[in-house]
Amino acid sequence: MLTRCPACATSFRVTPEQLKLRAGKVRCGKCQTVFNAIDSLLESPVHGTTAESPSAPARQPAAPAALVDTIDLVPIEDIGAAPARDRTPDTDASNEPISPEAVRDAALTHGLIAARETTEIPGYNKWAEGALSAPVQVSIPVAPPKWPFVLAALLLLATLAGQVAHQFRAELAVAAPALRQLLESSCAFLECDIPLPRHVELVSIEASDLQSDPTSSGALVLAATLKNRAAYAQAWPLLEITLTDVQDNAVLRRVLQPADYLPGKVDPTVFPPNAEIAVKLWLEARDIAAAGYRLYVFYP
């Protein structure tokens, strides 16, 4: 196997063991140039040439590279006259030239070059050869259906709406009279009722008076007028009457239910909208020195 120095064109005989020892890195024995003998392999033997080519230009010997681990080569004075026992497998018995492919295959067989150097594809790796030939299966995650979440959200919204309607059913019946029948039907199914509104700020005492009953000793007569200023029916309020002395201290307090102060002809369950009702009560106040009174309306 022959190689040639790229600096001085001197040919050398090398063996696969020499090239494998330093990965092909050698030192020219004539000009001391370090080069890769594998890259400078000769395609065919050169007959009748000397160790130093006369046509090669005169070059200054390169400085020895002392730090480079190489193999020193000795020049061949006459490659064509080399003994038969020194011939290497680069030529056959008939001295026919060997093709570059054969030289490359021989170097690959002896482990002188890496497998990736046998292809022209950059970045080729023999371990990855064939890895990209098979189709790659890419699994795309399937998004879960959205309709269960939408259905659950609608059910929760309907439940919340039902709770709000049940809690404020009285206000809804007043604000939307058209919904009253639906609310009553729902309450009949749920065994509940629709209470009347109790807005005490819309109930007022238009007039009141407390006098002694001339026909009964120790009795007092309370006369008052109650008015519902709301545009809708309300529940009847409770009355609280307090008798006070001359120092405005309470000496008697009594709370009256609607059935206690309403006349017998008035419905005790509904206070009609924009309605006025006259109230007249007789109070027993024996041995009570009452000089004044206070009258309030309220809802429990």
Q: Can you lay out the helices and strands and say which pair or pack?
A:
Elements (H helix, E strand, L loop, with lengths): L1 E3 L6 E3 L2 H6 L3 E3 L6 E3 L34 E2 L27 H10 L37 H21 L1 H7 L4 H11 L12 E10 L6 E10 L9 E7 L5 E7 L1 H4 L14 E9 L7 E7 L2
Parallel strand pairs: 3-5
Antiparallel strand pairs: 1-2, 3-4, 6-7, 7-10, 8-9, 8-11
Poorly predicted regions are 46-69, 75-94, 116-121
- What is the typical, i.e. mean, pLDDT? 74
Question: Could you say which structural class the secondary elements and strand pairing correspond to?
Answer: alpha+beta
Radius of gyration: 61 Å
Question: Main beta sheet: strand number and arrangement?
Answer: 3 strands, mixed
> Which range does the strand content fall in?
15-25%
Total helical segments: 6
How many strands? 11
Oligomeric composition of the shown chains: single chain
